[in-house]
Amino acid sequence: MAEQPGPVVVVPHSNPDGDAIGSAYGLAVVLRNSGREVKIVSPNDYPSFLGWLNGEVEIINYLKKRGAAEAVLRRSSVMFCVDFNEIKRADEMEKEVASFRGVKILIDHHPEPTPFCDLMVSEPTYSSSAELVFDLVVALGWRKYLDHSAAEALYTGIMTDTGSFSYSTNRPGLYRVLSELMTFRLDTAAIHARVYDNFSADRMRLMGHAILHKMVVLPEYRTAFISLTRQELKMFNFVPGDTEGFVNIPLSVNNIVFTALFIEKENLVKASFRSRGSFPANGFAAAHFSGGGHLNAAGGEDKAPLEEVISKFTQLLPAYLHLLENADNE
Q1: Structure-derived torsion over alpha carbons of residues 214, 220, 223, 228, reported in degrees to the nearest 10
Q2: Using one digit for the tens of pLDDT, what is the confidence trace for 192-218?
Q3: What's the sign of the alpha-carbon dihedral 311, 315, 320, 322?
Q4: Mean pLDDT over residues 82-107, rounded?
Q5: What is the spatial distance between Cα 316 and Cα 62, in angstroms, rounded to a whole number?
Q6: What are phi and psi of 177, to 5 degrees?
Q7: pTM of this prediction?
């Protein structure tokens, strides 16, 4: 970094979640406190329940302010790509990331990253990119630049990517990081409320509709899924982030170990997968939905119509029956 003076830009993945925004914002605040000029450029909008992570470092929405975003990209000498392991996750900004003339640095916790950056800090054993950012900051001697705002952001990233600490939490190092973040006197109850108790009435009605009318349970395969059409999303005044967490809901059904959420977009279907135990959600996503992720949390997409995607999904399950039946036997 010292050899690359000049402005820095931090880029999270498209449709950023809590870890993407939390790790990007936390890193950006640290860089700003170190004396660097820094901005965050997000490929598109992020959920409103993360809107409070703003103010100290500007977050520019590439889709809404392309001119301003491109000006930042042109001026910057260093780009941090945070919480994504392949360039296509930049989506609308893929060409801009690929053609960036400065130094590109990847910070990510997803397995099997592709080599699109000059320097790659990749560690799939970490719970989240936010946890990894903290350890990287400390390793680089930048802990003195951490402040309350950065700590809040990194805590938010960890909290959201572990389902409020319900999975991916078996590493002792995670609790060391959390204990160090707590030295900044974080109000963890308030952070949780900002993220999880800050939804619109429309979002709650959409969730009710999804559970009552769209959740399909397949007990013979220990699997359940939810699908939502564009029309249904429109009916409930959908905004980005409204379906966050929906894929986890069917995992609360007794004896279910694998769940999916299919969201109809304009030209494709976005798929999210969650699992319990040893069932490889990431392997399933990679093999059939051009995706990937972690053992118990993955995503992908399919360009077929929604009905065909659902049919494909259900027809694949018999081939995975043995793994599904034995997912508890880790």
Answers
A1: -20
A2: 999 999 899 999 999 999 999 999 999
A3: positive
A4: 96
A5: 37
A6: -60, -45
A7: 0.91
- State the pLDDT at residue 293: 87
- Burial (CB count <10 Å: 0-12, 13-18, 19+), residue 203: buried
Output b/e per residue, 3-13; b: 16+ Cβ within 10 A. eeeebbbbbbb
d(CA 291, CA 8): 29
Fold adopted by 201-325: Diaminopimelate Epimerase; Chain A, domain 1 (3.10.310)
H or E element that contains 306: helix 306-316
Give dist(CA 152, CA 22) in Å, integer.
8
Amino acid at 20: A
- Poorest-confidence range of 3-12, 104-113, 142-151? 3-12
Helix (H) or strand (E) holding 30: helix 18-33
| CA pair distance 20, 325, nearest whole angstrom | 33
CATH superfamily of 8-196: inorganic pyrophosphatase (n-terminal core) (3.90.1640.10)
Closest C-alpha to 157, from 185, 173, 124, 181: 181
User: Amino acid identity of 244?
Assistant: E
b/e burial code for range 148-165 (CB count within 10 A of at least 16 → b): ebbbbbbbbbbbbbbbee
- DSSP string across 197-253: S---HHHHHHHHHIIIIIEEEEGGGTEEEEEE-HHHHHHTT--TTTTTTGGGGGGGS
Burial code (b: 16+ CB inside 10 Å, e: under 16) for 47-85 equals bebbeebeeebebbbbeeeeeebeebbeebbbbbbbbbb
pLDDT in tens, 282-304: 999 999 999 988 899 999 999 99
Domain boundaries, the chain: 8-196, 201-325
Cα 42 off chain centre by: 13
Position with higher pLDDT, 295 vs 12: 12
